[in-house]
Amino acid sequence: MSAKVAERLMQILGYKELYPPQRAAIEAGVEDGRSLLVSSPTASGKTFIAMVALASAALKGAKSFYTAPLRSIATEKYREFREALTKLNLKVGISIGDLNVNDEIIVNRNDVIITTYEKLDSIIRNSPSIIDKMGSLVVDEIHYVDDEKRGPIIETLLSKVLYRSRGVQVVALSATVSNVDEIANWIGAKLVKCNWRPVPLSEGVYKDGVIHFSDGSKRKVEEVSANPSINLVVDESRQGGQTLVFVQSRRRAVQLAKMAARLPRNLLKFNQGKAREYAAKILATEGPRLLREEIAELIMSGVSYHHAGLSNEQRTLIEDAFRDGALAAIFATPTLAAGVNLPARRVVIAEVERYDESYGVPRDIKVFEYKQFAGRAGRPGLDPYGEAIIVASRPRSVRELMEEYIKAKPERLESRLYGVRGVRHSALGAVASGIANDFGSLLELHRKTLYYVQRGEEKLSQILRISLDDLVAWGLVEETNGKLKATHLGYVVSRTYLDPASVPKLVKLAKRFNGKFTTEGLIYIISSMPDMNLLPVRSSESEKIMDMAVDRVPTLIDIVDWDDPDSVAALKTTLALLDWIEEVPDDKIAETYDVGPGDVASIIDTAKWIASSLAEVAPAAGLPEEVSEKLRLLSKRIEEGVKPELLQLVEIPGVGRVRARRLYNAGFKTLESLATASPQELLRIPGIGPATVASILEFFGRKEEAASIKGRGHEGVGLDRFAA
DNA sequence: GTCGTCTGGCTTTAGACAGCATGTC
DNA sequence: CTAAAGCCAGACGAC
């Protein structure tokens, strides 16, 4: 039966024939549990190969796992897999960090489980025996091993699977890189390498009004604007196609989008009706009003920008708008290249230099990154071809860029496990979950990393020794007679998934606070943890931050190390979070701290995770129980963005911080007082409409009343200015 | 003296995973 | 280490 899996999937998906890499993968034995490394361009059908592997193993009664670097990718694949695999009577589940689910239930109830890397790592930590039931593991975007931050997770995650079970089928999917054979060797996989693309790609360099394609052909572009990228957008739009323009800074993305929007109306082709719809949807999102209006206006002109300063909702809307033909172009930072599938006929790489923080100078992007951008060119089934065009900046010659990028081979993938941070994390997880119980087994386990394959035993052993010594010194692991065992604290830290280095940092700061933990003090501790992501501090800004601190958090003045930029950034982040839980409107926060709504959302998300994790860690680290309670409360407040008195009210679906405050101020201070409120009374409160009232009534089980309210029609969303 | 413009120096610069609880988009 | 654009202060010039 297993040999038929691919055929059955073809039928389900309506495929008539397979793409070359798919055929190659079948021939190589995906259906029979062979481990594979599939290296082929974007959109060459790797998802189908993943499906075949997952389904084949699951149909034999084993658990199949699919793991990816981003929640958005995981969600996209979840929908796709569920759609197809349910028809084979397989159950598909997803477990990622922002969904409220129990991993064990998800794993037990489903045949195919979709996760992010970290989530799968965490699942394995909590129950390593899952590996024994694992039939197939698909690791998507495995080239992420080369990522400074996330790479070590993939390596050590995979090392645990490879170490514990020789039978698991690992199907690794990768973009094209030069050392694929080495990667295949690492995971013990057969290499399926293929450069075939579903849509032919032509690559070129644009300079002084002419596109020089790599095949020698040229195309003259009318210079309607002073900006080369915009000329390329207009040129493509005239031919009826869409363009993605990749830039290397947010500001640049915004600026170019605005420039394009000022173009004479007839130069860009896009669906104006749809554009209006999406502009209205953007206006209805959360976040600063000015920013929403700015994007809405841009969309009305058929363009938008796209970067991580936007909220996820806004980003998704912009992507949808592009897919729907409402936009002629998107000007994006590299987020868009890494995320969900969003192809365009033309891709413009507006600049190949990017400022590099670690060196303090601009550097050229990698060939690999260029190929990732270029991979977005050409929509399968829609475009006869795709184009990737690099814009030559003034000092660059066409030939230089052609040699350095278009004709160049992508770089090797290098292990990033050289730092102690990743190894510490992995070692603690291995010891706490019982996968390793002495230095020997720990070393054995880490021999299954790419780092070992590339750097050898000596270096690995050194890093491991240092990491272990740290863990012992911090009281997370005990080493007696060569046997390793996690302490209670070690178990807790491992389970929370915090960086083990959080512990010494927490202990040190706790001492500084001398037993007095105020709300701002705790937020500062949260912001100082190694896992926190901090708001950027401009050099001209530190004085302003100091003034605000004197005013608002005088207790922190002596705690902050003013010479340490990270400490100042933690303070800035603390102030923003404090505003958030004091119910300052989010657009006000974004403005005060000069960041986008996406940045605010990001610190909130991280802070609430760290807060609740620290609540677990604190007692184990010897801090009073009351600190834990405060942290738990704080985590809730950060999640909802409210003062303590609103925590009850925000439990109601449809009631967030704003509506809760309105209800509270109208006298409904508790759930009890709301439970018996009359609908008419509630409707009189400004900002509380029929939909909200219905939701409140439903929450209290007053179904009939809720239904009668719902019947009264909908409110407009206040988007009249865009209504034709 | 006041206003407007030019210029040179200084500043800034991408992204985003993880816990817990509960029968799940 | 190989950039480029915004911003601001100060210089300069016209009146």
UniProtKB/TrEMBL annotation:
Residues 229-428 form the Helicase C-terminal domain. Its EC number is 5.6.2.4. The keyword Transmembrane helix does not apply. ATP binds at residue 22. It catalyses: Couples ATP hydrolysis with the unwinding of duplex DNA by translocating in the 3'-5' direction; ATP + H2O = ADP + phosphate + H(+). CDD domains: SF2_C_Ski2 (cd18795). One of its GO terms (molecular function) is ATP hydrolysis activity. Residues 27-195 form the Helicase ATP-binding domain. PROSITE patterns: HELICASE_ATP_BIND_1, HELICASE_CTER. Keywords: ATP-binding, DNA damage, DNA repair, DNA-binding, Helicase, Hydrolase, Isomerase, Nucleotide-binding. InterPro entries: DEAD/DEAH_box_helicase_dom, Hel308-like_dom4, Hel308_SKI2-like, Helicase_ATP-bd, Helicase_C-like, Helicase_Hel308, Hlx-hairpin-Hlx_DNA-bd_motif, P-loop_NTPase. It comes from the Archaea. The keyword DNA damage applies. Pfam families: DEAD, Helicase_C, Helicase_dom4_arc, HHH_5. One of its GO terms (biological process) is DNA repair. It is an enzyme of class 5 (isomerase). DNA-dependent ATPase and 3'-5' DNA helicase that may be involved in repair of stalled replication forks. Belongs to the helicase family. Hel308 subfamily. Monomer. This is ATP-dependent DNA helicase Hel308. It comes from Acidilobus saccharovorans (strain DSM 16705 / JCM 18335 / VKM B-2471 / 345-15). The gene is hel308.
